[in-house]
Amino acid sequence: MTTLQNEYDENQEIIALTSSMVHKYYCENDVESVIALMDTQLTWIGAAEQEYAVGREIIAETFRRFAGQVPKCIITEEEYHVVPLGEDAYLCSGRMWISTDPTIQISLRVHQRISTVFCRRGKDWRCCHIHISNPYGEMTEEDVGFPTKMAKQSYEYLQKQIEIQEARLAAQTDLLRRMSYEDMLTGLHNKNKFLELVNAPCIKPKEGIGLACFDLNGLKEVNDQQGHSAGDELLCVVAQQIQLVFPQKGYRVGGDEFIVIDDTREDIFLAGVQAVQRELSRKGINCAVGCSWRDIHNSNIKDQYDEADKLMYQEKRRFHSEEAKNQTKDHV
Q: Which CATH number is 191-331's, of 3.90.1210.10, 3.40.190.10, 3.30.70.270, 3.40.50.2000?
């Protein structure tokens, strides 16, 4: 049992050493780590026809010329088998898929094979034979003079990488678009989107356009007394309520200023504004609001914004005036 266990352990060690050589060479291009495992008595047969050498010094010199030349690769589906050749000597044969990393500017995917022989030298294992090959045996009867099947696999791999890159670019483009037109804190449209709508109106109302300006009262006090995270949370509550009543029609155009643009009937628009105010008031949040609604013949977003903004600031002044009066009464 001990002998079988020792042989199993040594088999696993030889597999680990062979796999490490493959990864060090193809994934890290760390030729020195590969050279460190070479025995003085070594033969090497590479994948190319001219790649053949004998002796550690010659082979090490050849491998050092490979440093910086091997593109970064990804190794998958490794499979190894070990056969004892005698006392303290093992043959390891294996195969795997080697693919170029999608971050580099070349694309190839090939089925690679490797054979190594390891012999014990004192307490360590040293590699005394390396044979690398690509299985041109995969050529079909229809292939003439060139492994068309392998080339097709590489092409399919390249197409897959293109699809992956296109998906990444699409995701990045979508993120940039969102960052350009979406307020990242609240999820509402931002000022850029509002200005675009002002400069190039695309709303075609059936009856008219309603525009409301909401300005949050007391945000500065919340930031000063409870911190900016509490202020951000307050802004998000306001935005959520606007989004609930006016889905996809809300804009955050300033620190505490929100706008709603709704192409609907006047009564529906005003009822929605009141619903937002009522729900915010129930939560203890006070907003100054100014509204403008015009029919289809007189609607103009820029003019309506100026009108609603003016009304909103009038209400805001009334709010602060009342606050000042209440504070005076409290002191009296």
A: 3.30.70.270
